Structures are given as C-alpha cells and as structure tokens.
Automatic annotation (TrEMBL):
Organism of origin: Saccharomonospora xinjiangensis XJ-54
Keywords: Hydrolase, Metal-binding
Protein name as annotated: Putative metal-dependent hydrolase with the TIM-barrel fold
Binding site for Zn(2+) 1: 22, 24, 144, 262
InterPro entries: Metal_Hydrolase (IPR032466), Phosphotriesterase (IPR001559)
Length: 321
C-alpha cells in the first residue's frame, strides 16, 4: 500500500482523510529569531499552535500539507513537538523559497557559479526525502519552490534542482506562483522542459485570480490548481474566490483543484495584531466555517468537495510504481 511521510511517520495514503493542501505551522526568519530573542516566546507560540491545530482537527480536518522549506524558517523538531500534542497528520516538505536569488550558501558552487560543479541543492533535498530532515527520522514527502514575478537565474536554478530531485525520488512538487503575472505557466514550462510530469505538480496560489482562461491553461497542461489562499481577502475577496472554484467545478474540473488557506500559527512577516485586524478571515478554520457552506450555496456538490479535499490529495501523493 502506498504511504506518505508525515511528521509522525509514514501514513497509508488512504488514511490521509480530509486534507488542506497548503498550510504552514510557522513562517519565520530564524536568523532574526535567534539574534533578537525578545521577539519570540517559544512556549507561548507552541501553546498557541497546539490550540489552533486542535481547532482545525475539531472541524474534521485530518491532514495538513506544510510547504515550509529553506527560506521560510523550517524547524522540524519544533513542529514535531507540536504534532505530538495534536492528532493531525502534518506532511513536511523540502526545497527552497526565493523570489530572486539563491542564498549565498549556494552562490559559489553549482551550475553557473564561479566554482561550478554539481548542484548542491539536489543532494540536500534528496537527503531530506530519503534519510530525514535535520538529523531526525522525519522525511520530506514533497518539494516546494517559488516563482513570484519573473524567472530570475536564481529561481530557475531552484526549479531545475527541484526537477532533478523529483526524478531521483518520485515525490511531487508544489510551486508558489503569482497568477496575475502568469508565473504558473512559466513554472510549468521550465518543469516540463526538465521532464517533470505536470500531473504531479500543484500550481500554488492559483486562487488569487478570477481569470478562468489562465486557469484552464494551467489545468490543460496537466497540473492541479492550488485554490489555497482563502482568507487572504486583500489579495482577492473571498466571494470571488468562491465563485471561481464554483465556476470550475460546474465545468467538471473539481478533480483539478485542491483547497487551503496558506495560513499559519504565526508568521513574522506581520507585526503583532496586523493579521487579526487587516485579515480576520486568514486562519485555519475559515474554510470549514465559512467557505465550504458558501461553496455549497454556489452549487458545489458534496462529491465535488470530497474530490478536492480527499481524492485529489490522495492521488497527488500516490507515487507511480
């Protein structure tokens, strides 16, 4: 039986249950956190995370897919400590998150660098998948990369490293994209040129647009749409997000969408209180409390909801034999 690696160990893919396909536990700058400890209360943040994730479990969610990688402050031991207190599957990732350049750590070695050689990112990503993350037995189950505004040399290098790691390990890929810049299509082109099966790719944040022609192009190329930022209403109001999902479902395309919020227990990009004041719907339970009832009213059926929340994640994580 196919299994998926989670923070608590491998889980049969059939047991993932209801899945939110893009949620973070924490998004942090670890260098800031370590050098300015007055900005971080470890015990309070862990307690808050446990409480928030338990509330999500109480809504009937069984699994969250956490694309926190290098560049977003991944600390797998902290997540494991939290997960030990919550009966929820947390699926970890490997990869690198940048909109522009690679970290200086990679700037002198690898393709196109002054010293050249093989791509060191591939070795690290493969290690996370096959051996475990940060010296733990917790293995990454998928790859994460990003392309926001443009295909910079650094972003292209990460996409190439992700593609090579995908070929070596078989794990699927999630890409942060900006649909208003058309970068989902750019990511698909680069990955396709590297031989990636686009059916194993989620084009993240596709729900930030109402452009159905763009979304159909992404679907026609073979990937899943990440309709995964419910609650980020300042990027696109929630009613428009709901209408877009409903329109695609009415076209018979629920099998090409996955749902989530891209939320977190804490994100240090925002000052304290800003999220609650400016983005009150951006939290883990918004989907089940508000969005799913609205989708039903918009004509999305129970079978289509099950497809987006259960069947598509299961299919995404089932490796080809």
């Amino acid at each position: 039986m196919a299994t998926v690696e989670t923070v608590r160990g491998p889980v049969p893919v059939e047991d993932l249950g209801t899945v939110l396909m893009h949620e973070h536990v924490f998004v942090l700058n670890e260098e800031i956190r370590r050098n300015y400890p007055h900005l971080w209360d470890e015990e309070a943040q862990v307690e808050s995370a446990v409480r928030r994730l338990k509330a999500l479990k109480d809504r009937g969610v069984d699994t969250i897919v956490d694309p926190t990688v290098l560049g977003l402050g991944r600390d797998i031991e902290r997540v494991a400590r939290i997960n030990a207190q919550v009966d929820l599957n947390i699926v970890p990732a490997t990869g690198l998150y940048t909109y522009n350049d690679v970290p200086f750590f990679f700037s002198m070695h690898g393709p196109g660098t002054p010293l050249g050689g093989d791509e060191p990112m591939v070795e690290l990503f493969v290690r996370d998948i096959t051996d475990g993350i940060a010296g733990t037995p917790i293995k990454a189950a998928f790859l994460k990369c990003a392309i926001e505004d443009a295909l910079t040399p650094g972003v292209e290098r990460v996409l190439h490293a992700v593609a090579e790691t995908h070929h070596r390990t078989g794990v699927p890929i999630t890409v942060h994209t900006n649909p208003n810049r058309g970068t989902g299509l750019v990511a698909q082109r680069v990955l396709r040129e590297r031989g990636v099966d686009l059916g194993k790719v989620v084009i993240g944040h596709s729900g930030d647009t109402t452009d159905l022609d763009y979304l159909r192009h992404v679907i026609d190329a073979g990937s899943y749409l990440g309709m995964d930022r419910f609650g980020l209403d300042f990027l696109l109001p929630g009613d428009q997000r709901i209408a877009t999902v409903a329109a695609l479902a009415a076209q018979g395309l629920s099998d090409r969408m996955v749902l989530a919020h891209d939320a977190s227990c804490h994100i240090d990009w925002l000052r304290p209180g800003v999220r609650e004041q400016a983005m009150p719907n951006w939290h883990y339970t918004h989907l089940h409390d508000d969005v799913i009832p609205a989708l039903r009213e918009a004509g999305v059926t129970e079978d289509q909801l099950t497809t987006m929340l259960v069947e598509n994640p299961r299919r995404y994580f089932t490796r080809d034999s």
